[in-house]
Amino acid sequence: MNTYLYIAIMALTTYAIRVLPLTLIRKPIKSRFLRSFLYYVPYVTLAVMTFPAITTATGSPVAGACAMAAGIVGAGRKDVFHDALSRRARHPARHRAGVGPRRSGNAAKILRLHSLQHQG
Fold first, then answer.
1. Three-state secondary structure along 37-103?
2. 97 vs 71, more confident
3. Which pLDDT belongs to residue 104?
C-alpha cells in the first residue's frame, strides 16, 4: 500500500511543478536575471546528469576523469569531425579500398600520397 502512496505523491509533485508555472505566471517574464536563469536550466540539468555517468562509466574514477579530459580537449579542437568527413568525401574510393595514411603502415606511400594531394 505504501508503494502506491509514494507513486501518487511523486505524480502529484511532478504535475504541480509543471502546471503551477503555467497557471501562476500569465504575463511575459520581464526580469532579465530570471529569464537568463531559466534559459540555462536545461543545460545545467543535462550536465548534472552526464557528469556522474562519465566519471563512473569505467568503474575507475581516474579513467573516467581522463576520458572526460580527452572529451573536453577533443571538443575544443576546431572541426575535428568535419575534417575527417571532408577528407573521406574528397577521396571516397581511396578510403573504401583501404589505401591511405590511416590504414597503411608504409611511410613512403603516405608521403607520396601526401605530396600528390598538395601538388594538384
1. HHHHHHHHHHHHHHHHHHHHCCCCHHHHHHHHHHHHHHHHCCCHHHHHHHHHHHCHHHHHHCCCCCC
2. 71
3. 47
